[in-house]
Design goal:
single chain; about 200 residues; mainly alpha
């Protein structure tokens, strides 16, 4: 699994071909790794917001209490895993439209692999420097989108012209999911898990 992650970061085109050649059983076994990889940003967020805090200008660091950070970190993890599962299911659902026959877990594994740069970049949340975090998160999201476009033709075994349309549809689903998560974040912060700031 680790070799595939480094391969996707270093040479994604050839690595997708290697992953596409794996057996269904091997792909099923790979799915467990994303459950743990998704914990990296949530744990980083918890450490960063409770231990170090973030600074605006020359002011004192702003932190939240450990008690209020726990539900926020859990909700963050659920949102990340929800993205992998929901978009993975949409990859499976759309496969018939693009004449790609696959099992639902293959879409989940595909989205987990595409989300790996975002999971790894989430480690920077442990020491929040806003300008750096925004730059790295933007680069990680951009690279994840690139992985979607490069991986769809090989993983789903569709021609490149159909692969581009398929990947664009997957990207559109991901954007809708992001909007839903943003709306849910506002509602949850207001009514369920509001952060409590330390003095």
């Amino acid at each position: 699994m680790i070799s595939h992650i480094f391969g996707l970061l270093y040479d994604p085109q050839s690595e997708w071909k290697k992953i596409a050649a794996l057996s269904d059983e091997t792909l099923k076994r790979m799915s467990i790794y994303f459950i743990f990889l998704g914990m990296i940003p949530a744990i980083g967020f918890y450490i960063g917001t409770t231990q170090f805090g973030w600074t605006i200008g020359d002011g004192e660091p702003i932190r939240i209490t450990k008690e209020s950070a726990i539900p926020l970190a859990v909700l963050f993890y659920i949102a990340l895993m929800g993205a992998v599962v929901f978009i993975g299911l949409m990859v499976h659902w759309m496969s018939k439209t693009y004449s790609a026959s696959l099992h639902a877990y293959k879409g989940f594994v595909f989205m987990g692999l595409c989300s790996t740069p975002v999971f790894l970049a989430g480690a920077l949340a442990a020491y929040p420097v806003w300008w750096l975090d925004i730059i790295v998160a933007t680069a990680a999201c951009g690279y994840a989108i690139r992985l979607i476009y490069l991986g769809i033709p090989d993983m789903m075994k569709v021609p490149e012209d159909l692969g581009f349309l398929y990947a664009s549809a997957v990207f559109a689903v991901a954007l809708v999911y992001v909007v839903v998560v943003l709306v849910a974040t506002v509602l949850l912060w207001e009514y369920v898990a509001a952060p409590v700031f330390t003095d």
